Structure formats: structure tokens, C-alpha cells
């Protein structure tokens, strides 16, 4: 790296009450290519510095109003001016003054009468130091930005990888289960028919041979034929309901991941929400706890052109967070006899966008935490329970990918509300 400090066009402020000194110093510095401003007392100096910040200050200690130390102290207290290098000028060369000059924040000290070469060398040296310091600060800032970007990219990659393997797993499983359930459901109908036929056959036998042998009689009693006839139909019925439910979950999984469809699609947002709710059934109806009520208020929405599976992913993330927040507030809700509830509301008020609101009466989010919600890896959940990536991913999907909005409104103990504003048409960049 080459350092090319702009020492020659640097702006230097000379503060001295002796016109001769000012004249001497300024002609010397102007000759070297520096830009020079002058002030004859402390107040003027401070005003000049506030108006335009110089790159370096040559500051006399003995000034009429405030002395040089005071001017220096005042500049060091102000964040804007504290890094301007100050070289003290003085005829007083006692050790005590020099020490004080450094104590109040000066970087150097030149004594009168001035040595031409010495002044130039010191000025150049401190301007160079200041330039280096600025460069370091700038690089530090760039590093911080890069680090932030890196963390975001790492988070994105992690989440993408997770979703990709989850998606593949889900699609593989859906395929396998679908095939197997297909056998069962397609065989159930003939099985029911066969059983009916067999039962009718038995009945015919009973009519034709009303006096069965003792062995047959004993077996009929053992199997409780009357009950069996009645129960077998119910049994087949519940097997049918079971397979229908499995098929509904598989369908939801397919809608949710939309793996066999092109990425950008015009979709019915409500269909996506419903598929997510099916997949979250076990969390909404937990064992040994009151179920979580879901209040769905769906207004008429147009089809939305979007990355459908990603929008479903966002709804899934927000609902999962809402359930987590409700689980963490179970005791409070029970004490207040309040039903654990999630409200999902969709609206189409602005012609160009639809709104999806997901609200819960869980633990809520303290105001101090709200600005950090979308930071990579920000989580309040126990290790292994939360990765702190879902909201960041959701934000990236809604705001960066779809040019929409994802807004959080919450107060502690009053639940949280996340609002998605999704443009009807995706503008690809
Ligand atoms: N509905 C909500 N109510 C209360 N707090 C919430 C809600 N949604 C998010 N939060 C807070 O925001 C944090 C970040 O949420 P995010 O979904 O990004 O990560 P996570 O849920 O902790 O982990 P994961 O990445 O596994 O979902 C949560 O840890 C939680 O503190
Ligand atoms: Mg989460």
C-alpha cells in the first residue's frame, strides 16, 4: 500500500496574537504549497475551526482571551474536532509547559524563535501521521462493513443449505409416502366391497342353513359376529379418513415447497397459508396443552406473482415464531384465562400490493430488542432451539427479493404483530 498524504494542499490554521509570527509562519507554509488560515485569538480560532475543519493547527499558548491549552481542551472535547492534530507554539520552553501541552492533547511543541526546517519537518510529519490515521480509520470501517456482509452471507448460505436439504427431504418423503398411501387408499374400496360380499355370503348361509353345527355356533359367538359386522364398516371408514388426512398433508407439503413448479408463479396466497397451517397442526394442537386458536380473516385477494415457495417459507417462519412466543407465554395466558391465539389477516387495500398480518398473544418483543430482530444470528431462544436466522431470511425474501415490506409491531406482554406488504407483481432486477 502506498501512502500519498495530501500534505501539500493541506489546510493549516495558525493561531497567534503576534502579527509578525503569523506573517512569518504563513509565508513559509504557503511557499511550501499549504493552504493557510489565520486567527489572532482563541474565540476566532474556534469559530474558524467550526466553519471549516483544518488538517492541522499551529496554536500559540499565550493568547489574549483563552490560552492555547483551553482552546486545545475545548477542541478535544468535541467529537468533530478531537482528532485534528495540534502543535503548540511558545516561547516558554520550561518542562512543565511541554508536559501540559501533551496532557491537554497536543501532538507536538515548537519553541520560539522558530527554526525554519524544524517547523516544516514537524508539520509534514504530523500531517502524514494524520493521513495514515484517517486511512486506518477508513479501512477499519470498510472491514466492519465487510464483516457485517460476511455474516449476512454466511447466514444466507446456512439457511439456503438448510432449506435445500429440507426441501429435498420433504419432496423425497412426500413422494414415497404418497405412493404407499396410494396403495392403501386404492385398495380400501375393493377391500370394503370384499368384506361386504363375505358378510352377505355369511348371511345367505345363515338363511339357507339356519341350524349351524356346534363348532360354527361356538366360533360365531367367539368372534361376536353381530359386533364384527357393525364394527368392520366403521373401521374401514376411519382407515379412509386416515389416508385422506395423509394425502392432505402431502398435498400441503407440495404446495408449501412447490418443488415441481417454476420458481416465479402467480399464486393464491390463501392456499399457501392454509398449506402452512396443515404442516403446523402438531404444533397448533400440542398434547396435554390447550390448542392454539387460529383466527383466519381472509379478504378477497388477487393472484400474486412471486417466488411462491419462498413466500410460504416466510409465512411458515412467522407462524413458527408466533407459536414459540405463545409457548413462552402459556403461564400468563392461563392465569389471565386468555386463549392462546394467532390472528392471520389478509387485505387488499392498495391496488398494487396485498397485506398479510400475523399477530399473536405471546410474550411480545421489548422495544430495545426490535431493532436487532433482523440481525443475523439474533435469537433469544435456548441453544439448539433457535438459530436466529428465520427473520433475517424472511426480511431478505420480502424486502430484497420482492421489494415488499416486513414490519414488526410489538410491546412486551402484549404479543407481536408482523406485517408483510407484498407487491402484486414481482419486479425482477
Ligand atoms: N412473534 C414473536 N414474538 C416474540 N418474539 C419474537 C417473535 N418473532 C421473533 N421474535 C424474536 O426474534 C428473535 C429472532 O427470530 P428468528 O425467527 O430470526 O430466530 P429464532 O426464532 O430465534 O430462530 P430460528 O432461526 O430457528 O427461527 C427470536 O429469538 C425472538 O426473540
Ligand atoms: Mg424463528
From TrEMBL:
Residues 204-426 form the Histidine kinase domain. InterPro entries: CheY-like_superfamily, HATPase_C_sf, HATPase_dom, His_kinase_dom, Sig_transdc_His_kin-like_C, Sig_transdc_resp-reg_receiver. Its EC number is 2.7.13.3. The modification 4-aspartylphosphate is found at residue 60. It catalyses: ATP + protein L-histidine = ADP + protein N-phospho-L-histidine. Residues 11-127 form the Response regulatory domain. This is histidine kinase.
Amino acid at each position: 500500500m502506498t501512502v500519498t498524504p495530501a500534505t501539500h494542499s493541506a489546510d493549516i490554521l495558525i493561531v497567534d496574537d503576534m502579527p509578525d509570527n503569523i506573517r512569518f509562519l504563513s509565508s513559509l507554509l504557503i511557499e511550501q504549497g499549504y493552504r493557510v488560515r489565520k486567527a489572532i485569538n482563541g474565540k476566532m480560532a474556534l469559530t474558524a475551526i467550526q466553519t471549516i475543519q483544518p488538517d492541522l493547527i499551529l496554536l500559540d499558548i499565550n493568547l489574549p482571551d483563552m490560552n492555547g491549552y483551553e482552546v486545545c481542551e475545548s477542541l478535544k472535547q468535541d467529537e468533530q474536532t478531537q482528532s485534528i492534530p495540534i502543535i503548540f507554539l511558545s516561547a516558554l520552553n520550561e518542562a512543565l509547559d511541554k508536559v501540559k501541552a501533551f496532557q491537554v492533547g497536543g501532538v507536538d511543541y515548537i519553541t520560539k524563535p522558530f527554526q525554519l526546517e524544524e517547523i516544516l519537518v514537524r508539520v509534514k510529519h504530523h500531517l502524514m501521521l494524520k493521513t495514515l490515521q484517517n486511512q486506518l480509520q477508513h479501512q477499519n470501517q470498510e472491514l466492519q462493513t465487510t464483516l457485517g456482509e460476511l455474516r449476512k452471507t454466511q447466514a444466507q448460505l446456512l439457511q439456503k443449505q438448510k432449506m435445500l436439504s429440507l426441501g429435498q427431504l420433504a419432496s423425497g418423503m412426500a413422494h414415497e409416502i404418497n405412493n404407499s398411501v396410494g396403495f392403501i387408499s386404492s385398495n380400501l374400496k375393493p377391500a370394503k366391497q370384499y368384506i361386504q360380499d363375505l358378510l352377505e355370503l355369511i348371511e345367505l348361509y345363515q338363511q339357507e342353513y339356519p341350524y349351524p353345527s356346534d363348532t360354527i355356533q361356538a366360533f360365531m359367538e367367539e368372534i361376536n359376529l353381530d359386533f364384527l359386522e357393525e364394527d368392520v364398516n366403521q373401521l374401514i371408514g376411519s382407515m379412509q379418513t386416515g389416508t385422506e388426512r395423509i394425502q392432505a398433508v402431502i398435498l400441503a407439503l407440495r404446495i408449501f415447497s412447490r418443488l415441481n413448479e417454476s420458481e416465479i408463479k402467480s399464486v393464491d396466497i390463501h392456499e399457501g397459508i392454509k398449506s402452512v397451517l396443515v404442516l403446523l397442526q402438531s404444533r397448533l394442537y400440542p398434547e396435554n396443552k390447550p390448542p392454539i386458536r387460529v383466527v383466519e380473516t381472509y379478504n378477497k385477494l388477487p393472484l400474486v406473482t412471486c417466488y411462491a415457495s419462498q413466500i410460504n417459507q416466510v409465512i411458515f417462519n412467522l407462524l413458527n415464531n408466533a407459536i414459540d412466543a405463545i409457548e413462552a407465554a402459556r403461564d400468563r395466558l392461563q392465569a389471565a384465562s386468555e386463549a392462546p391465539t394467532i390472528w392471520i389477516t389478509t387485505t387488499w387495500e392498495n391496488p398494487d400490493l396485498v397485506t398479510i398480518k400475523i399477530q399473536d398473544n405471546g410474550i411480545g418483543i421489548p422495544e430495545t430488542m426490535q431493532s436487532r430482530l433482523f440481525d443475523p444470528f439474533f435469537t433469544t431462544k435456548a441453544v439448539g432451539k433457535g438459530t436466529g436466522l428465520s427473520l433475517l431470511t424472511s426480511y431478505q425474501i420480502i424486502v430484497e427479493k420482492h421489494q415488499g415490506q416486513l414490519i414488526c409491531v410489538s410491546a412486551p406482554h402484549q404479543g407481536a404483530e408482523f406485517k408483510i406488504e407484498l407487491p402484486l407483481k414481482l419486479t425482477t432486477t
